[in-house]
Amino acid sequence: MRPTVLLWDIDGTLLSTGGAGRRAMERAFDRHAGRRDACAAFSFDGMTDRAILRTGLRAIGHDATEDAIDALLAIYVELLAEEMLVAGDTRLHHGVLEALDATARRAGCAVGLGTGNVRAGARAKLTRVGIYERFAFGGFGCDHERRDELLRIGAARGAAVLGAPLEACRVVVIGDTPKDIAAAQAIGAESIAVATGSYDVAALAACAPTHLFGDLGAEGALEALLG
């Protein structure tokens, strides 16, 4: 088997937080700019945290400078930690634990994250459901604002964990949005799309993922992960 790097998206793929991330974003904008409605007109699906904040700042007529985004991010991470403490409807999606168990047992398989969340946000969400320690590395929204570039960074880190050249590795992106699929295609990776977020099977199929399942408990999903 080729050395394999798995890059997992978080929101809509591994888990759902019942809107905790959006609530924290709204509160961050309220504290920073007095505008809780900055993100009301767009979906967060597949966006990185920095891209969300940049879009929200522009939506309310503010300059989306790096300093402004950094200030908002610091507030957001603080408020997200608060939201996750009371997010009673946070849940792992069907088949996730079984998939993580199976890949952890497979030699030559590096299990990491490929997420638009900044690292601290990823930690807050995954710690809430007890799986943060399952991921040895990742590409995060604090590594790059573009999803394809953060995946490229995550893939390189995974190859380093395996002690293999990246070119020799099979890289697989697991996600629930068209942006996950497009970013995987942009870096030459396989994609496993799951309809556990906001997009149904038909919408994801239109993006031509390598594999497509209703959820990770579906027949063939583990085989697709393990190659």
Automatic annotation (TrEMBL):
It catalyses: 2-phosphoglycolate + H2O = glycolate + phosphate. Its EC number is 3.1.3.18. InterPro entries: HAD-like_hydrolase_sf, HAD-like_sf, HAD_sf, PGP-like_dom2. It comes from the Bacteria. Transmembrane segments: none annotated. SUPFAM superfamilies: HAD-like. Pathway: Organic acid metabolism; glycolate biosynthesis; glycolate from 2-phosphoglycolate: step 1/1. It is an enzyme of class 3 (hydrolase). GO terms for molecular function: phosphoglycolate phosphatase activity. GO terms for biological process: DNA repair. Belongs to the HAD-like hydrolase superfamily. CbbY/CbbZ/Gph/YieH family. This is phosphoglycolate phosphatase. It comes from Sorangium cellulosum.
